[in-house]
Amino acid sequence: MKRKLVYSRESLDSTTKLLELNPEIHTVWNYRRDILKHILSPEPETKIENNQGSILESTDRGGDDTVIASSDSSIEKHSINKQEMLESELKHNSKMLLKNIKSYWMWNHRLWILESMEEPLWYQELEMINQMFKIDATNFHGWDYRRTVVKKMMDNDENAADGAIGLDGRDGISAEGCKKGSTEHRKSVSVKSEFDYTLKKIKENFSNHSAWHYRSKLLPDVLAELGETEAKQLIEEEVEMIKIAIYSDLDDQNAWLYFDWLQGFTKEKSDHSMYFIGIEMANELLELEPNSKLTFYFYYRRSAVANQI
Its family (predicted)? Predict the structure, then answer.
């Protein structure tokens, strides 16, 4: 059907069935988007008949010979509410997402839905992600998607919150409630609030690599808003948090990797103190657990660099 450029409701239903069986077929997702684009297209359509006498709808697209097949013997042009249809598609995506939250193509399609809306539901989407993280807070795709959503929220602070859609596909917060609290919600979305959120998720699970990674993306912007004394204090607090994480599980490399990044970041500021802090910390850990290969590895790396400073 895709090769024949058939963009009908029947075709849309077919993609639904295929994707429910296997959500990783990216060509089907692409085809589904093409179908939705044509259905939602505001351009005029005219009826034509093929040589078998069946009715086809041809779009007036400046020479584009794409046709939209219809199974109805009589076709009427119905007015389509674009926002409602995309919200319905978002609900359908939510139900599928619950079954496979690690599908890249599903997250990609979800972003397309929101970007295609006249009134994107970014604020409700952030709440959906919060709910999703209760299921799996280490999902890399979810964190990557969260960064995109937060950026959209910051770039589009005039967006109106309307008709929240939860992860289970049901309507969430009432439209009235969203509108009343939308301004307050917008003010709460910031680099600092996201930075605090990563701390919360890291404390829940020190092995949450995605949360550590997101924190490394946010820290430079947080520090940029602080004075020299406050910035130094925050770095010290980061080191203490790293120590707690490492002491909790010597075999977990996530905190060490964040410490590596922090060393590189402070080195760019001509501050080499992190290397010596790392050596001291590794020494203490090796006294407690001399057979820790991971600790010895990070100790060796820091010693090699420190000798060159």
Answer: Belongs to the protein prenyltransferase subunit alpha family.
Rounded to whole angstroms, how far apart are CA atoms 154 and 159? 10
| Alpha-helix runs per DSSP H in the chain | 9-21, 26-40, 82-99, 104-116, 122-132, 140-155, 175-188, 191-204, 209-224, 228-248, 254-268, 273-288, 293-306
**Hey, which residues does 171 pair with through a beta bridge?**
165
What is the reported pTM? 0.75
- Tokens 């790293």 belong to which residue? 242
pLDDT, tens digit (0-9, with 9 covering 90-100), for 247-265: 898 889 999 999 999 988 9
Spatial distance between the Cα atoms of 143 and 129, rounded to a whole number of angstroms: 8
Residue range 73-98: mean pLDDT, rounded: 77
C-alpha 92 chain-centroid distance: 18
Name the 3-class secondary structure at 151. helix
Dihedral over Cα of 50, 54, 55, 58: its sign: negative
CB of 198 within 8 A of CB of 206?
Answer: no
Confirm if 8 and 68 have CB atoms less than 8 A apart.
Answer: yes
Tell me, what DSSP letter sits at residue 47? E
Could you tell me the residue ranges of all domains in the chain? Answer: 224-308
Any idea of the CA torsion for 172, 178, 181, 186, to the nearest 10 degrees? 90
**CA torsion sign, 176 to 177 to 180 to 183?**
negative
The CA-atom distances, in angstroms, between 287 and each of 123, 283, 291, 292 are 49, 6, 9, 10
CA distance 98 to 2: 27
What is the maximal distance between C-alpha atoms in the chain?
Answer: 86
Q: In degrees to the nearest 10, what's the CA dihedral of 142, 23, 93, 125? A: 10
Calculate the dihedral angle through the C-alpha atoms of 88, 90, 92, 97, rounding to the nearest 10 degrees.
-170
